[in-house]
Amino acid sequence: MKDFLKVPGKNRGEIKLFALSTCIWCRKTKQLLEELNVEYKYIDMDMVDDELEEKFTEELKKWNPDCSYPTLVIDNKKCIVGFQEEEIRKELTK
User: Fold this and answer.
1) Phi/psi of residue 27, each to 5°?
2) Is 14 helix (H, G, I), strand (E, B) or coil?
3) CA–CA separation, 94 vs 91, rounded Å?
4) Residue 46 and residue 8: Cα distance in Å, rounded?
5) Cβ distance 83 to 27 under 8 Å?
6) Which helix (H) or strand (E) holds 48?
7) Using CA atoms in the order 64, 56, 79, 91, what is the torsion angle rounded to 10 degrees?
């Protein structure tokens, strides 16, 4: 994997998800975004090569210094850490 993968849906702004392919909460977040039919980009951090991992980790640290997953960034303004279903629904169904 070289970069974020795009999932089609309704444009609700720029939505980026930092995830792990093995994380149940990351999968639940992806399922929720798909249920809401929201266009988003995601990267499974455990699937990138070492040099790209460093680049994406730096970007992730700007939003979530703990680098925990899932981390959802909305329009480069708001960050939701963890599977916060109510908060995600509220932000993306305005």
Assistant:
1) -65, -40
2) coil
3) 6
4) 22
5) no
6) none
7) -160
Quick one: fold of 5-92?
Answer: Glutaredoxin (3.40.30)
Q: What is the pLDDT of residue 53?
A: 87
Q: What is the pLDDT of residue 46?
A: 94
In DSSP terms, 78 is beta-bridged to 74
Amino acid at 66: D
Give CA–CA dist 26/20, Å, rounded. Answer: 6
> Could you read off the pLDDT of 39-88 as tens digits, one per residue?
999 999 999 988 888 899 999 999 999 999 999 999 999 999 999 999 99
Q: What is the pTM of this model?
A: 0.94
Tokens representing residue 23 in the block: 């994380």
Contact 88, 72 (CB under 8 A): yes
Which amino acid makes up residue 90? Answer: K
Query: What's the CA gap between 92 and 68, in Å, rounded?
Result: 21
